[in-house]
Amino acid sequence: MELVRKLQRREEDNHPVAVGIVGCGQMGSGLAHAIGHIPGMTVKAIADIDPSRGINTFLEMKRAKDDILITENLGQAQDALDSGRVVVTPDAQLLTRLDSIEANVEATGIPDVGARIARSSIENRKPIVMLNVETDVTVGVYLNHLARKAGSIYTVASGDEPGVCKMLYEQARLMGFEVICLGKGKNNPINREMTPDACAKEAASKGMNPKILTSFIDGTKTMVEMAAVSNATGLLPDVPGMHGLKVELDEFVRTYIPKADGGVFEHRGTVDYSTGKIAPGVFAVVYSDEPRMRRDMKFITKATGPYYLHFRPYHLCDLETPQSVAEAVLLGEVTIASQAMHSEVVTIAKRRLKAGEKVGGIGSADIYGLVYPYQQAKSLGAVPIGVAANGTVRQNISKGDLLTQENFAPDTTTYIYRLRKKQDAFVDSQGRA
């Protein structure tokens, strides 16, 4: 790929890849600092509902205060960028219309915001790199379709688990292996009852939003990540919510394999996670019964097969995202994107929900997500978790029960709900083709 050489040339030409960042929380600010150390790439604009976050990030990156323009005006922002200044704005849509920005990174984690920014970037033919996997599992199939139709790039970021899982998948397939299971390590056991209030102190100590930490602990984030992997590869959860076993490294090739060979899976080609020592890495359990490949694997790795473990012991989140930016801008390449609806993250009641109540979204005290095979979720009338926020309970829903079209009414005024309806129609039309 020679990305570093291409970026060095952009640096020498005084024409670094200009990046806009939407959302300047933990991920967005970390990404900005990483880009600040990459010759040939630069952050030119930051959008956040709280402009002080963008201002402080630029100041931390040693930008002079007078170099930072705070504005919602397109002309003023473009003039500032043309003169070598940087822009901070509360209007995220502004970044999608600035001629000087070559790619945007969406890092809010809010499905509705992600959907708006992704589509606007696509319409303005700017590559959009998603650190917002919640949007991808809700409307990523449609956004990817729109991007390809427009000749633009829509991609989920490298560094997040879906991106590095896809790397292992591509490598395995390009070596001739069958991928039996693709997955991630989870640092802690799932606690379905976690709430933002209960983890507020821990979130503060880590500099995190309590809702985001809640979504990690209650398992929603893991479900979202592996649904994104499923929709990009066609691999499926073996059971709703996946198995999520605590498996040591030497046990994967005996456990995360089909039942017919002594493992836990009903079928081949799965997504899953483990709470064992694989965390915070990602893994692929692969298979080959080809005699020469098995002989070479024994010589190279001492593994006898026919099942083998490929794993990467880390993922570096926002620090790896610049690679996706460079690939999108310089090569026109996608890291990972939903190709079809193979899996759905459905919505489960975290507590008893009463008729007439409105519920919070991902990371709230009201709901959590579980990954299901898409066709099963559809047959149950399940509500995708990406459209659940601010919806209204139609009938009393018991703790642990599924939110469905019968007992729950999503907020139909949101942008992501309207885009999801377009995706549903598109997916149905593809199925009929």
Walkthrough of the structure:
There is one protein chain. With 433 residues, the protein is an alpha/beta fold. The chain has three domains: 3-158 and 319-331, 3-Layer(aba) Sandwich (Rossmann fold); 161-314, no CATH class; 343-427, Alpha-Beta Complex (Type Iii Antifreeze Protein Isoform Hplc 12), CATH 3.90.1210. It is built from 16 helices and 16 strands. The radius of gyration is 22 Å and the shape is globular. The strands form four sheets. It has a seven-stranded parallel beta sheet with strand order 3-4-2-1-5-6-7, with helices on both faces.
Q: Helical amount among residues, as a percent range?
A: 25-40%
Strand content: 15-25%
Question: What number is the mean pLDDT?
Answer: 96
Main sheet specs: 7 strands, parallel
Helical region count?
16
Q: What is the CATH homology-level superfamily of the largest domain?
A: NAD(P)-binding Rossmann-like Domain
Architecture of the largest domain, according to CATH? 3-Layer(aba) Sandwich
Largest beta sheet: strand ordering: 3-4-2-1-5-6-7
Radius of gyration: 22 Å
- Principal-axis shape equals globular
Would you tell me the structural class of the helices and strands?
Answer: alpha/beta
**Which blocks of ≥5 consecutive residues have pLDDT under 50?**
none
Helices, strands, pairings?
Blueprint: H1 3-12, E1 17-22, H2 26-35, E2 41-47, H3 51-60, E3 68-70, H4 74-82, E4 86-89, H5 93-97, E5 103-106, H6 111-123, E6 128-130, H7 133-150, E7 154-156, H8 161-174, E8 178-185, H9 200-206, H10 210-217, H11 220-233, E9 236-237, H12 252-255, E10 270-274, E11 282-287, H13 291-301, E12 307-312, H14 321-331, E13 343-349, E14 367-373, H15 374-379, E15 392-393, E16 408-409, H16 415-432
Parallel strand pairs: 1-2, 1-5, 2-4, 3-4, 5-6, 6-7, 8-10, 9-10
Antiparallel strand pairs: 8-11, 11-12, 13-14, 15-16
